[in-house]
Structure formats: C-alpha cells, structure tokens
Amino acid sequence: MTFRTRNTLQFTLSAALDARRPAILRHLLRSHGQHAFVLAIASRPIRQKADVLSLLTHAEQAALCPQLPQQTRNQLTLVGIPCLESGVPVHST
C-alpha cells in the first residue's frame, strides 16, 4: 500500500467513524482488505478502535480481531468488544 493510499484510507475511515457510517466502513474493509484496514486503525486510541469494530458485523469483527496485537485485543475486551471470544484462532504479535 502506498503512502497516498494509506493516507486516503485513514482520512476516509475517520470521516466514516465521525459520521457513524457502518456501510462506508464495510466498503473500506472490502475494498482495501483486512490487513490494510487493521493497519489503518492500529494507531488510533482504543476507544476509536472499539467504535470502528462496534460498527461492523460480528463476522467482520471476528475476522479482524485475530490480526490485532494481543494487548489491543485485551483492551478491546475490557471495553466491551469480545476479541478473545471470537472463536477464531488468535496470533500473538
């Protein structure tokens, strides 16, 4: 992913989150892929990560959670996003 693409994804993700637009978040996830989407939310505060994930379906959450670092998954679980209970094998990072 180029810097320009990453920047555009970050900007669009922020706008979709601010407007509470799950359809746009799902479109970004589908069009950029899970890895790029996880990278785009990686630098955000935990509450914003939780907000992004809460606007996605449970299946989308379950697909993204294993790609997040263990510490992030633990924090998300504490704020109500059950990343550790997704039923999908987790990878330590």
Structure description:
By secondary structure, this protein is mainly α. The protein contains 6 helices and no strands. The protein has helices at residues 3-18, 22-32, 34-42, 46-54, 58-64, 70-78. Helix 1 (3-18) runs antiparallel to helix 2 (22-32) and helix 2 packs across helix 3 (34-42). The longest helix is centred in the first third of the chain and has 16 residues, at 3-18. It is globular, with a radius of gyration of 12 Å.
Write the layout of secondary structure elements.
Blueprint: H1 3-18, H2 22-32, H3 34-42, H4 46-54, H5 58-64, H6 70-78
Helix pairs in contact: 1-2, 1-3, 2-3
Order of helices and strands: HHHHHH
Q: Tell me the fraction of residues in β-strands, as a range.
A: under 5%
* DSSP summary, beta strand count: 0
Indicate the overall shape: globular
Summarize the entry for a quick read:
With 93 residues, the protein is mainly alpha-helical.
Features:
single chain; 93 residues; mainly alpha; 6 helices; globular
